[in-house]
């Protein structure tokens, strides 16, 4: 089975499906009766033959036939043979067997009646009537009457035998006449019944014939074929009505499943549905199938109904088929026509829009593009009038209404409209409309031509013409139009008049020779020759002659062209007077430039200035024409610089590079090169311009400056890093200071313990003050160097002070602090403050990172000059990788340390810096889970004498009654200083700012109790300490009124500024009582007032 799509074509003339598989035969009811009669005759003959042969066999087997019995047996056997032969002759000779067979049977019955002596009482005589009836019914009178007549003759012969006494008496005792009458009556009735039966059969046949004729007529009207399928869906009957002649299949179709035939065509989906309906015993309605003949394809619509026998037994299908090939051909032709029209509609370049009542029904791709839609579905259903510019919609609507009243095919004249696309772009179009008739009713087909580009081109052309006209009139260059065949001027612009001095009216119609425009005849000859040979000329330098006879340099270009079938020459000539002047100026600049300048083209020097030649050591003019490689140290260097800057130059970019170049004497020097293509838009055309500067000396200076800058930055970094580190370490004494102060404030604390806390607070505060003082001294550092003190101090006392300071803190954390001091420590020489700072950092870290156990501080002398300090703890320990980073700036064990304990990780790095400055070293020994031991080995030689005690305290009597003015804007600082001074017997006056200080000094002098000393804060609002000092120095000398700078800003620069402002001394905050008393004792001893 194939699908319809596999078919070849559709034609009218070749044979159809049915004519390909059937042959013409008679098909009426009479013929079917003949076939039935023939079958019944054969059955009848076979039964007769069987009876005769059987009777003959009985006689032979049981009667031992001799004499007349043997004759009877032979006669029966012969009659059976004749009947058997008649049975086989029925299909070929349908009438004769119905006569011969029954006659043979009658003869055999007669022979038996005579031979066996039965006469009219023979039992077989009853079969004579049966044979007469069957022969009459099946064969009609032509067969029935001879058989009936033979029976009557047989009865007559037997009666004659009885009358002659050949047979015995009748066994039944009945009269012979009665028996004969009965036998004759039976034959007569049998013949009559057979005749009646034959008549009824013919009548029924006529009725069936008429019914079949009506069926055939209906079949010819309603269908072209009739078919039947058996229960297995095999074709058992197929007829085609053609010219009123019924035909029956006689070919390959009968007995086959239709869709298995090679010529049967059906769509797979249709076949699946057909098979499903057949399997479900559903009726079939207009199933489309086709048959592929030798040269044609025929299409049919098949309908059918299932057939059911008695008891609802399924017996197959029957139905009809209509040949719809002409219809399919018409549909295909229509589809092809529609496809051609649709292809034309789609492919035509002009936009087409089909619309009705203003709504778009269809459009081709050109219209979709014109109206600015993305695809056709967006456009369908939209309003065609919405696309028109609002000013044109009313006119477009009137034209559409007019088209609706016109007959199909009529059109409107072309009109111009403006359309606005979806994106807002305005288009200029020409449009017409045609009334058309579609399957959905009357519509309008609008045809558009996009004139936007044409009108834009016309506008551009008009603008171009106006622009050219304007350029021709206003161009600063000379523009002339000359007739090529005559050489006469057709047009000249105003620049021609301005430059040559010739008025236009005197030039038009004359030649250049007539007015003498060429200053040099040779220039004209070169110009004419090039125009004649090449048809154009480009940038030819010539000289024109003004009307007054003076020459003017010009750069001429020209070209031939044709217009109005005439040849013309257009000339553009530029006045080069200014250009020539510019060239001379440029040459002067190049000649006198201090930088080397060169032009290369195709890797060859084309032009250089004197500075370039002098820089490279080449004689004047000798480097031009040399290859570019002559100034490079080697070919490899030349290729390398080409690889670096070649791609950039090719892009038109400017390149700056520093490199070594070679002089002519093979010496080299460092230079800075700037390179760029002469024409950046076309780098390969004009060559490359090079600007070269010898930077050997400049580079030396830059390197010296860089070294100085690096040194300064190193010093700054060192200073900044150290200050940052030390600022972190300020927290260590501050921590002790705050902790002890909080402990001292504990309610109910024993006085002795509180006194101890206060003493430790003082120690921590002093340590903090010492660190701050040293931080301020860092202003004197230039390269990361810190000046250390070297003084005698008691190391045992320092260790004891540390123990006192941290024992309480350790106890507060549940730890034990132990001190192990070896022998020979005592007085040593060194910087006690830095030693304390290192040990304080170690102890603070140990207490911070140890949760339980103890912290041990030990010190022992290694030799006469070195002491080893160790701070060990029972903390978590440190792994080897972390130990390597511990003494680096900003480093802690890990990020969790910072999160848990805080800090910046600078403490240990400060310890390393301090130890290094002392000439010592630091380190750590640690195991994870077993604690850590931080050590420091410092050079602390034994002091030669007793340690220097604190500066001798001033005589208390020396400050008693001294009158001191304290100037400070900070209330807390004022309160502390006043209390400290009054504690030693000083009379204190107070001033909160500069103006109060000046007023206080004046008031004290007026009262006759002048101040012996002024302690001046520097940073105050209104008037600063410097300004107050300057005013006081105008009144009093340094001896008559000493002024001491008392400020927290204690940088070296500030000390120097204070002394320069006229102050006698500098005392940085914070200060203790001893420092204040010593400063007052030093400066408050006033001399005679007159000495001031």
Would you write up a description of this structure?
The chain is α+β, with helices and mostly antiparallel strands and 1092 residues long. The protein folds into seven domains: 4-16 and 224-330, Beta-Lactamase (2-Layer Sandwich), CATH 3.30.450; 29-203, no CATH class; 350-455, 2-Layer Sandwich (Beta-Lactamase), CATH 3.30.450; 475-579, PAS domain (Beta-Lactamase, 2-Layer Sandwich); 593-694, 2-Layer Sandwich (Beta-Lactamase); 711-939, 2-Layer Sandwich (Heat Shock Protein 90); 956-1091, Rossmann fold, CATH 3.40.50. The chain is 47% helix and 22% strand. It contains 35 helices and 35 strands. A hairpin with a 2-residue loop joins strand 12 (426-438) and strand 13 (441-450). The relative contact order is 0.03. Residues 6-27, 242-250, 777-784, 890-904, 948-953 and 1086-1092 have low confidence and may be disordered. It is an enzyme of class 2 (transferase). The modification 4-aspartylphosphate is found at residue 1017. Residues 725-942 form the Histidine kinase domain.
């Amino acid at each position: 089975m194939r699908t319809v799509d596999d078919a070849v074509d559709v034609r009218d003339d070749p044979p159809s499906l049915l004519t390909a598989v059937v042959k013409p035969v008679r098909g009426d009811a009479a013929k079917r009766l003949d076939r039935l009669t023939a079958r019944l005759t054969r059955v009848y003959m076979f039964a007769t033959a069987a009876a005769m042969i059987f009777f003959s066999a009985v006689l032979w087997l049981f009667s031992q036939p001799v004499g007349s019995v043997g004759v009877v047996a032979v006669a029966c056997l012969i009659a059976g043979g004749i009947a058997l032969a008649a049975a086989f002759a029925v299909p070929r000779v349908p009438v004769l067997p119905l006569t011969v067979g029954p006659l043979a049977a009658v003869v055999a019955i007669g022979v038996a009646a005579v031979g066996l002596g039965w006469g009219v009482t023979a039992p077989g005589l009853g079969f004579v009537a049966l044979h007469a009836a069957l022969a009459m019914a099946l064969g009609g009178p032509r067969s029935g009457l001879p058989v009936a007549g033979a029976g009557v003759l047989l009865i007559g012969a037997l009666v004659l035998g009885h009358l002659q006494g050949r047979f015995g008496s009748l066994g039944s005792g009945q009269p012979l006449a009665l028996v004969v009458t009965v036998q004759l009556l039976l034959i007569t009735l049998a013949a009559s019944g057979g005749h009646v039966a034959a008549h009824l059969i013919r009548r029924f046949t006529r009725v069936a014939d008429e019914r079949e004729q009506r069926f055939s007529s209906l079949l010819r009207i309603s269908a072209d074929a009739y078919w039947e399928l058996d229960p297995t869906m095999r074709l058992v009957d197929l007829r085609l009505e053609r010219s009123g002649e019924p035909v029956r299949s006689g070919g390959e179709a009968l007995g086959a499943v239709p869709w298995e035939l090679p010529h049967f065509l059906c769509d797979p989906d249709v076949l699946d549905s057909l098979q499903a309906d057949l399997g479900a015993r559903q009726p079939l309605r207009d199933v489309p199938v086709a048959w592929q003949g030798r040269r044609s394809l025929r299409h049919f619509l098949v309908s059918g109904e299932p057939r059911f026998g008695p008891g609802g037994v399924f017996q197959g299908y029957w139905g009809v088929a209509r040949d719809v090939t002409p219809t399919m051909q018409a549909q295909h032709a229509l589809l092809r026509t529609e496809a051609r029209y649709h292809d034309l509609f789609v492919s035509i370049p002009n936009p087409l829009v089909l619309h009705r009542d203003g709504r778009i029904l269809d459009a081709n791709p050109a219209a979709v593009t014109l109206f600015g839609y993305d695809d056709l579905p967006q456009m369908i259903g939209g309003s065609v009038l919405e696309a028109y510019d609002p000013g044109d919609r009313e006119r477009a609507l009137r034209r559409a209404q007019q088209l609706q009243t016109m007959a199909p095919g009529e059109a409107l004249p072309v009109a111009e409209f403006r359309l606005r696309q979806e994106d807002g772009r305005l288009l200029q179009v020409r449009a017409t409309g045609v009334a058309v008739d579609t399957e959905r009713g009357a519509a309008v087909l609008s045809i558009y031509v996009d004139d936007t580009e044409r009108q834009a081109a016309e506008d551009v052309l008009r603008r171009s013409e106006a622009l050219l006209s304007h350029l021709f009139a206003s161009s600063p260059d000379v523009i002339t139009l000359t007739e090529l065949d005559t050489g006469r001027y057709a047009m000249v612009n105003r620049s021609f008049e301005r430059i040559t001095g010739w008025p236009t009216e005197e030039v038009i119609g004359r030649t250049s020779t007539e007015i003498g425009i060429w200053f040099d005849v040779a220039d004209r000859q070169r110009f004419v020759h090039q125009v004649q040979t090449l048809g154009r000329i480009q940038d030819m330098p010539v000289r024109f002659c003004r009307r007054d006879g003076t020459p003017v340099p010009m750069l001429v270009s020209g070209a031939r062209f044709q217009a109005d079938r005439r040849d013309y020459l257009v000339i553009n000539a530029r006045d080069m007077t200014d250009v020539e002047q510019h060239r001379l100026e440029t040459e002067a600049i190049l000649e006198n430039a201090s930088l080397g300048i060169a032009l290369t083209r195709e890797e060859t020097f084309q032009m250089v200035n004197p500075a370039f030649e002098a820089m490279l050591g080449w004689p004047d003019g000798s480097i031009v024409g040399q290859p570019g490689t002559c100034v490079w140290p080697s070919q490899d260097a030349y290729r390398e610089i080409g690889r670096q800057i070649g791609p950039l130059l090719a892009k038109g970019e400017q390149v700056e590079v520093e490199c070594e170049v070679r002089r002519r004497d093979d010496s080299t020097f460092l230079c800075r090169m700037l390179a760029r293509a002469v024409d950046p838009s076309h780098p390969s055309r004009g060559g490359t311009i090079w600007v070269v500067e010898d930077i050997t000396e400049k580079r030396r200076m830059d390197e010296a400056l860089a070294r100085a800058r690096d040194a300064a930055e190193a010093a700054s970094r060192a200073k900044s890093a150290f200050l940052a580190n030390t600022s972190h370490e300020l927290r260590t004494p501050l921590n002790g200071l705050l902790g002890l102060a909080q402990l001292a404030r504990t309610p109910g604390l024993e006085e002795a313990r509180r006194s101890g806390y206060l003493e430790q607070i003082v120690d921590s505060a002093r340590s903090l003050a010492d660190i701050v003082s040293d931080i301020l001294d860092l202003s004197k550092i230039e390269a990361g160097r810190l000046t250390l003190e070297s003084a005698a101090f008691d190391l045992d006392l320092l260790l004891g002070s540390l123990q006192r300071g941290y024992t309480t803190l350790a106890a507060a954390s549940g730890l034990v602090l132990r001190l192990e001091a070896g022998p020979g420590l005592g007085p040593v020489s060194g910087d006690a403050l830095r030693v304390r700072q290192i040990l304080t950092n170690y102890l603070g870290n140990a207490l911070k990172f140890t949760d339980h156990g103890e912290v041990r501080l030990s010190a022992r002398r290694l030799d006469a000059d070195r002491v080893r300090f160790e701070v060990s703890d029972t903390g978590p320990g440190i792994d080897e990788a972390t130990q390597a980073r511990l003494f680096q700036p900003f480093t802690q064990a890990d990020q969790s340390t910072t999160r848990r304990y805080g800090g910046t990780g600078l403490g240990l790095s400060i310890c390393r810096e301090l130890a290094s400055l002392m000439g010592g070293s630091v380190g750590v020994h640690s195991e994870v889970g077993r604690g850590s031991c931080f050590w420091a080995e410092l050079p602390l030689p034994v002091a030669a004498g007793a340690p220097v005690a604190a500066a001798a305290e001033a005589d208390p009597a020396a400050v008693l009654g001294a009158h001191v003015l304290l100037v400070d804007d900070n209330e807390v600082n004022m309160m502390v200083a006043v209390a400290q001074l009054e504690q030693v017997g000083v009379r204190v006056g107070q001033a909160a700012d500069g103006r109060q200080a000046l007023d206080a000094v004046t008031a004290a002098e007026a009262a006759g109790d002048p101040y012996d000393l002024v302690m001046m804060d520097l940073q105050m609002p209104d008037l600063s300490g410097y300004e107050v000092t300057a005013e006081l120095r105008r009144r009093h000398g340094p001896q008559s009124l000493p002024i001491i700078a008392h400020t927290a800003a204690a940088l070296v620069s500030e000390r120097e500024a204070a002394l320069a402002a006229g102050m006698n001394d500098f005392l940085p905050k914070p200060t203790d009582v001893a420092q204040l008393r010593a400063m007052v004792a030093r400066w408050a001893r006033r001399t005679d007032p007159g000495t001031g």
